[in-house]
Amino acid sequence: MNLSHIKDGATAYVTAIKGSPSLRVRLEELGFVPGQEVTRVYATPSGSPVIYAMLGQRVALRTGEAQLIEVSTQRPNENYADEQRVARTAAETNAAAPLPSGPIVPATGCATESCGGCPGCGPRKPLAPKAEGTITVALVGNPNCGKTTVFNALSGGHERTGNYAGVTVASVVGETHIDGRTVRFVDLPGTYSLRAYSPEEAYVMSELLKGEIDAVINVLDVNNLERNLLLTLQVRRLGLPMVGALNLWDEFSESGSTLDVDRLSAHMGMRFVPCVASRGEGLKALAEAVIEAYDRREEQPTPPPNDPHSAADPHALVHHYLADIYRLRESKAVRFTTWVDRFLVKNPLSYGVFFLVILLVFWATFTIGQYPMNWMQAGVTWLTETLTNVLPKDRWYVDLLASGVVGGVGTVIVFLPQILILYFFISILEDSGYLARTALLFDPLLRRVGLHGKSFFPMLTGFGCNVPAIMATRTIENRKSRLLTMITLPFMSCSARLTVYTVFTMAFFPHQATWVLFSLYCGGIVMALLSAWLLSHFIRRHDESHFVMEIPPYRCPVAQSVVSHTWEKGRQYLRKMGGVILVASIVVWILGYFPHPDRALSPLERQEQSYLGQAGHLIQPAIAPLGFDWRMGVGLLTGAAAKELMVSTLGVLYHMDEDSAAAAGSGNDAKADRAISAALREASSPAAALSYMVFALLYFPCLATIAAIRGESGQWKYAVLSMLYTTGVAYVAAWLTFHIARLCM
Which CATH architecture describes the domain 119-304? Predict the structure, then answer.
């Protein structure tokens, strides 16, 4: 029988694996080898994927993949596994790209010809030249082993971490000083092997072979050591000085599990250091160990030879090493995970729970964030009034400061609290391990429209920023699914667009803010799915598609990690305010002020005769059916560079017209007249506001995202397709929204 036949809670033993060489290699890397005990834990509400437990880990498989694994309910004899492994042909064993050994040589390209978009396929960007005496240390490990957490603790960095695979999608460099030595740490993407079957594997292999790495820290999840050591064996064959970090040692020891670290070090020919990266325990000893390994590189023992009776199979070698030194017991985290998954994953109500969680996040973002947002808005208004009252009247530089700088940057910076709150909750969901389960829940739906369950990770990342989301598609092995994910990802509403929604929602729909925001985000998701289904009929690639994914246990988010991640995103937002937004706001003001700075003209007349006004009136015939005035159209044009510029532009333009708004008799006081919301209410309508938010949600992403699509796909045609397609969809959707809203309001 095959693995799909066993019931929840039942145990079986692997006898053989069918399927393509790439699938067999992936399954074997995760521990599905002859003789291995496997327990079915539960199935998702749709019946597929199914969660299986083995070697202290949990792996999700679709029913199709489970049917390729033959099992027996009878425990095999002790020699069965070895007999089966030896019986396999060399072609099967070495189906993947061969692993190098001996001296390190520069890589010439990606090890897989069909990759079509990983960093190894294009020109290679070497690390910056290092100073004399600097040691470059690469961090290598399986996905979700805590590698990036170790990197942050050692280098003082603030790289994103998450309790799911595929968080690190490119190498990240951090530098620090240890005992008077300059050490450069390089965080490489998580990988199960160096076989180069997936883009991240090819990338890691290439980086290790370029000749720029002096030593390696191999980060291992000590609770899943038997599988993690397979990568260790492969990296050891490269001959680099190497130290192993036995991470999550606290969970391991609390469960009553044991490991003879000294004997493991002797077996592997390298030192292993227990550590708890989230608390910084053992990392000082780890750093000292890697420096010592580098200093003694000439004395480094040769990589451990394969055991004579299992030369064809590293699994047997690892099992042989751990047989009498490693005892693993079920941890509290695993038991807690089993209990929680009954409600969050296994139950048919899991989908409702997910949407409820997202709704609560949006509610908190708007409700809680509104208070500090109002305080910051009051500060911006006070600063504008002060500049206007204190500085000389009728001077261009006063107008530049008040309308260009404060009106542009100030309009955007007030949304910082909402950005921080959104990232705070996303960090909690990531670190807890809940987001990893969303791929299981939505894989059946995504598969029907041509995507992959792993597409859900980039899509969720896209709520923060589309650029890292595009890069995160590297974890999707299927070429077609990867391309479809990249093209449709811009429909995921990034945090920059949140500023646009907030401005128009607070101006026209203050009492329905949560539901408007929730509807916009859901609308983006629905449009992405529909577009993926449509475009899947035009991208004619029939690559092999499988769903094989490790599922991490639930863990309590570390406060320091959540705060650090949130603050880092806030700092990036502020850095953008002081850079591109400031410059763009000044440019917008200049284009809106010249060439007619004649004070005899009204502010509105000066705007309309300016360079910016001329551009706005040029496109007005195209945007008029959508309910937009020329200033809203200019906002769309500047938003092509960065979506925050939309609000910045509107802030500059409507601040310029505050005098005419007051003359029109709005009835509001001076502070309200200076607020962009009051100006929008004077110039637009609720139907036009809805139309504008829909267009901002759907039209082509910023130039950085377009460049990322070009870089990851390897072809400009997919970047151009994404730009043209999203803009066309945005126009049609905004037109429908405007005309339907006018009928209903």
Answer: 3-Layer(aba) Sandwich (3.40)
